[in-house]
Specification:
By secondary structure, this protein is of the alpha/beta class. The protein is 31% helix and 24% strand. The chain has helices at 2-23, 46-56, 64-70, 80-90, 124-136, 161-166, 201-207, 229-237, 257-267, 271-274, 293-303, 371-378; strands spanning 113-118, 139-142, 144-145, 175-176, 185-193, 216-223, 244-245, 249-252, 275-280, 283-289, 307-314, 318-322, 332-335, 340-344, 348-352, 357-366, 383-388. The structure holds flavin mononucleotide.
């Protein structure tokens, strides 16, 4: 009892001090209906925080969905610290509305990320890079020259800048911009055009600019006809220390998504066992799988071939499709976030584009798509979704 009175007093004191500071943020808070938006008005604001405070001392009642939305630190109880997290978020002091879960609903883990870094003067390598980014959910870094290459600079039938640089292995063209904290990546796909049988010198500048000793680097290139091996030899001879330097791959100009996907499937450390894809029309959505036996069963299913489901709206929060058979269940009470892939009653697959609380099994989460993007990709009414390993 004493504890309850103490926390009520503390909360009142905290809110009295903090509330005036945060009132101004109420109208400017981010539009987001994820964790923290207790009054469902699309804005995470000080009003939400106050409501959580009231709920935490029993002044206000909340429904089950609100309960799920309120427990920001995921400790199983609604407390002043949850309210403070919401307040922090509402004024931009925090970028998360739920510990371990980014505001777009994607799971935050300690896992390192993948980067695709590439130099592409005429766009061919960039097309390949775009596919790799989509397939691996990687970040992008465009290697650009501080002094950009003009058309005349790459006119290889003349004594152009590119030709002169390629004739001198010591040239290091300066790069525009820098990668913020390269140690956040454990895998870097490194893309470039072939210039006179080799990597453009700016790739050497790039490789000598960072510490790759804990990073797996995977080269890829595009060319009219030359292979990648001379450039790989040059890269090895730079003496840069790599976590691992994988054997790379040359792509012909105009290579298809399927060709690139097949290679990524073979070489990508992230494909291994925890990412599958949902193909919806022109869109390919990576799904990071949960660590449970249902998700593993789902992945095993896809190893036998793609799974095509006709999925329909239900409850204005999900698309649901019948499997026609059952997968092992690991049901638990879950409040969904948009992008969740859920196994419902063992024999239905659902993609959530809104919030719902129920007991079911989370199979995974679609990466990197906001609720608005998901709604637009899924459309209204029936949609055909092809789940696949690639
Ligand atoms: C200066 C220069 C030299 C090139 N040398 C070669 C070459 O030796 N072998 C080859 O197959 N293609 C060569 N190409 C063609 C490019 O490798 C090819 O067009 C590449 O896809 C361009 O990539 P990007 O569009 O990403 O810049 C050269 C192009 C330029 C501009």
């Amino acid at each position: 009892m004493k504890k309850r009175i103490f926390s009520a007093v503390m909360i009142a004191a905290v809110s009295a001090v903090l509330f005036p500071l945060f009132v101004s943020a109420e109208t400017s808070g981010p539009t987001n209906d994820m964790y923290g938006d207790i009054d469902y008005d699309g804005i995470i604001s000080s009003a939400d925080a106050l409501q959580v405070l009231r709920c935490s001392v029993g002044t206000d009642e909340y429904d089950t969905v609100q309960q799920g939305l309120s427990d920001i630190d995921d400790d199983g109880s609604i407390t002043a610290s949850d309210a403070l997290d919401i307040l922090r978020y509402s004024v931009g002091l925090s970028v998360e509305t739920k510990v371990g879960r980014d505001v777009d609903g994607s799971q935050k883990t300690d896992q390192k990320k993948t980067l695709v870094a590439y130099f592409s003067r005429t766009g061919n390598t960039e097309t390949v890079a775009d596919y790799i980014i989509e397939l691996t959910n990687a970040d992008r870094f465009v290697i650009e020259a501080a002094d950009p290459y003009s058309d005349a600079d790459i006119e290889y039938n003349s004594d152009c800048r590119a030709n002169r640089e390629q004739n001198d292995k010591s040239v290091r063209p300066e790069i525009k911009g820098k990668i913020d904290d390269i140690s956040q990546y454990d895998t870097i796909y490194l893309g470039y055009a072939i210039w006179w049988g080799q990597e453009p010198r700016i790739i050497d500048t790039f490789l000598e600019s960072y510490d790759f000793s804990d990073i797996t680097v995977i080269p890829f290139c595009t060319s009219a006809s030359s292979g990648i091996s001379a450039s790989e030899r040059n890269i090895r001879e730079l003496g840069v220390e790599f976590g691992e330097l994988k054997t790379g791959r040359r792509f012909a100009i105009g290579s298809t998504r399927e060709q690139i996907s097949e290679w990524v499937g073979e070489i990508s450390p992230t494909r291994q066992s925890d990412v599958v894809y949902a193909h919806i029309g022109e869109n390919t959505l990576p799904i990071k799988l949960e660590d449970n036996s249902s998700a593993r069963a789902f992945e095993e299913l896809l190893k036998n071939g793609d799974l095509t489901l006709k999925m329909d709206d239900y409850g204005n929060f999900e698309k649901v499709g019948e499997l026609g058979f059952a997968l092992e269940r690991n049901d638990e009470d879950i409040t969904t976030v948009p992008g969740d892939l859920i196994l419902y009653q063992g024999d239905k697959i659902t993609i959530y584009y809104d919030i719902n609380s129920w007991s079911f099994t989370r199979l995974g989460h679609i990466q990197g798509k906001s609720q608005e993007e998901l709604r637009s990709i899924l459309g209204s009414g029936s949609v055909t979704v092809i789940f696949s390993l690639r």
